């Protein structure tokens, strides 16, 4: 492998001059620059950016932990993260801590954090499935690990961990569910069921709580809950279970859009008209919600913007370094209802793709 010393000897300059030219740290005359670049080309020299960055105390690598990279939600979040960090010369290491039914929820998360910290990433943006009951002890453990080898800043996605000293970019899951259920109520639904997400995860638990709180506030009883795993297959099976109930629902709130797609398939196979007989609302507004027939009414979450803002907060922490004394950020993302034909037969087709 060609060394920087060999480049300097070929160009007839000092090693520091080669470094200044390649890193653009100091002014070097055009004549010397030309000699250095010619030597680099002749020797086919490639600077060891990893070693150089390590010497400076950073790796230009950021860890990202998601809970389902193969789903339809997180790719857009990661896209937002990448858009910001790539402009600053950072690379991403992505860990998928998705939990299969029967698995312990935090095992993969812990493994992902340890792997990223051992590789000395400059920061971690993460989604956690830790329950509210366990979060205090768990987050303190993660923060200790983050500071063991070097000070590694953390940013939480989807949940507010600012009370534990962690920057957070999130949305209110209870509010998300409330918006969906209130929409069904406004369309005349009175028997509103819920296809919930995985029991062991906190985000679907909060959406379920938002569903129950809204029903209670509206005097519509305790509701009917069937659990899925966020997949369209589980939404299909959950809807079949709801249809077999003694009193069929007239409205269904699904914890994500993929399960809503499966629910629509079950209704179509049974010849049940949507929205005339049963209305369906999803959550997240991923792309399938606007392309299926009927289009799915849903709660739009700014996924790409959430990733972008998380990356901006992380960069701020990295730049502050040891002098960082800013309080933890807690930034709640805006949500909005998107009405399509699964609840309103007169709604216009919505093919626009904005901030998926």
Automatic annotation (TrEMBL):
GO molecular function: DNA-binding transcription factor activity; transcription cis-regulatory region binding
PROSITE patterns noted in UniProt: HTH_CROC1, HTH_LACI_1, HTH_LACI_2
Protein keywords: DNA-binding, Transcription, Transcription regulation
Domain HTH cro/C1-type: 3-46
Family matches, as Pfam families: LacI, Peripla_BP_3
Residue ranges of domain HTH lacI-type in the record: 2-56
Xref: PANTHER family: HTH-TYPE TRANSCRIPTIONAL REGULATOR GALS (PTHR30146:SF109), LACI-RELATED TRANSCRIPTIONAL REPRESSOR (PTHR30146)
Name of this chain's protein: LacI family DNA-binding transcriptional regulator
Organism: Candidatus Egerieimonas intestinavium
């Amino acid at each position: 492998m060609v060394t920087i010393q060999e480049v300097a000897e070929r160009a007839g300059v000092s090693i520091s001059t080669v470094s200044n030219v390649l890193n653009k740290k100091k002014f070097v005359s055009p004549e010397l620059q030309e000699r250095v670049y010619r030597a680099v080309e002749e020797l086919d020299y490639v600077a060891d950016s990893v070693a150089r960055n390590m010497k400076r105390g950073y790796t230009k690598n950021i860890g990202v932990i998601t809970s389902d990279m193969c789903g339809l939600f997180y790719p857009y979040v990661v896209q937002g993260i990448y858009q910001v960090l790539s402009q600053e010369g950072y690379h991403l290491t992505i860990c998928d801590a998705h939990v299969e039914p029967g698995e312990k929820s935090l095992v993969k998360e812990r493994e992902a954090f340890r792997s990223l910290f051992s590789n000395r990433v400059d920061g971690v943006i993460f989604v956690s499935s830790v329950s509210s009951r366990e979060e205090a002890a768990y987050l303190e453990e993660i923060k200790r690990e983050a500071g063991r080898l070097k000070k590694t800043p953390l940013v939480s996605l989807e949940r507010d961990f600012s009370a534990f000293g962690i920057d957070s970019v999130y949305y209110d899951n209870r509010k998300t569910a409330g918006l969906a259920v209130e929409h069904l109520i406004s369309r005349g639904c009175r028997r509103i069921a819920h296809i919930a997400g995985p029991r062991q995860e906190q985000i679907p638990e909060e959406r379920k709580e938002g569903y129950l709180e809204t029903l209670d506030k509206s005097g519509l009883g305790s509701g009917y809950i069937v659990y899925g795993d966020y997949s369209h297959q589980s939404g299909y099976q959950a809807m079949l279970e709801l249809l077999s109930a003694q009193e069929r629902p007239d409205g269904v709130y699904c914890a994500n859009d993929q399960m809503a797609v499966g629910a629509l398939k079950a209704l179509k196979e049974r010849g049940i008209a949507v929205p005339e007989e049963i209305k369906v609302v999803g959550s997240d507004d991923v792309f399938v919600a606007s392309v299926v027939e009927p289009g799915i009414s849903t709660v739009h979450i700014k996924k790409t913007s959430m990733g972008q803002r998380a990356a901006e907060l992380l960069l701020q922490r990295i730049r502050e370094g040891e002098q960082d004394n800013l309080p933890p950020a807690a930034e709640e993302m805006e949500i909005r209802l998107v009405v399509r034909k699964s609840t309103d037969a007169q709604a216009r087709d919505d093919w626009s793709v904005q901030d998926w």
